Every structure is written in C-alpha cells, then in structure tokens.
Amino acid sequence: MDEAIKYTLIALAAVVCVIVLKKSEPGFAILITICAVLVFAYALIGAVSVIRDFAAQVEDMSGAVDGATAVLFKVLGITMITRIGAQICKDAGEGSLSLKLEMLGSALALIAALPLLSGVLNIATSFLKS
To answer: In this prediction, what percent of the chain has a pLDDT beyond 70?
Structure first.
C-alpha cells in the first residue's frame, strides 16, 4: 500500500507541474509527463517480474502447456507498451497517432497470441477426433 501512495503522490505532483507549465512551456510539460511515465514503467517492470515468477511456479506445478505464460506476458508487454505510448501521444494532442498506435498494439498482441490459439485449437481438434 505504501508504494501505491508513493506513486500516486508522484503522479499528482507531475500533474500539478504539467498544469502550471502547460500554457507557458508546453514542451517542458510533455517532458515532465514522459519522465513520470518512465518512473511508473520502471516500477511496473518490478511488479510484472514478481507476477511472472509466480506464474512460472504455477505453470510448473500444473503442467500447463510449456511457454503459455511466456506468450501471455509477451501479449501483456505489447499491450502495456503501446497503451503507454498511445497515452503520451494523446497528451501531446496527437489523437490520430494515438489511435493508430493502439490499433497496431492490438494487432501485434494478436499475432503474439497465435501460438497459444493454435495450441487450443489442436486440443479441441484432438477431443473431436476421439
């Protein structure tokens, strides 16, 4: 909970700075936003690594399809990276670029998930044949 409070306060401080600087120095305002995003991305990497380690333990215990969690985390990474980039574009007033980046992220996530979908279809096909 302490980390949630700490990062929320960082976000609020960044927002106050952005609001103050937006009219007089819009370039600095976007720079502050990008710096705050990088701080949160760094914190997010730590959180995701803890979740990844737990998911690997669960995968080992359950005997799930090898690499399933790797595919899921790849999809999660693609989604998060493109979403953060899209929000930065939107904050900079580039809504069209933001939308295109989100669409590209969705397509890349789907492409990354195709091996998992293929595995599910193989399992379904084997059930139908027996």
So the answer is: 96
Give 25's DSSP letter. -
Q: Under 8 Å CB-to-CB from 109, ≥6 apart: which residues?
A: 75, 78, 79
As a whole number of angstroms, the distance between CA 82 and CA 59 comes to 27
Angle at 67 between CA 116 and CA 121, to 5 degrees: 25
Please give the C-alpha separations between residue 92 and each of 34, 82, 95, in angstroms, as whole numbers.
10, 15, 8
In contact, 119 and 65? CB cutoff 8 Å = yes
- Please state the pTM of the whole predicted model: 0.67
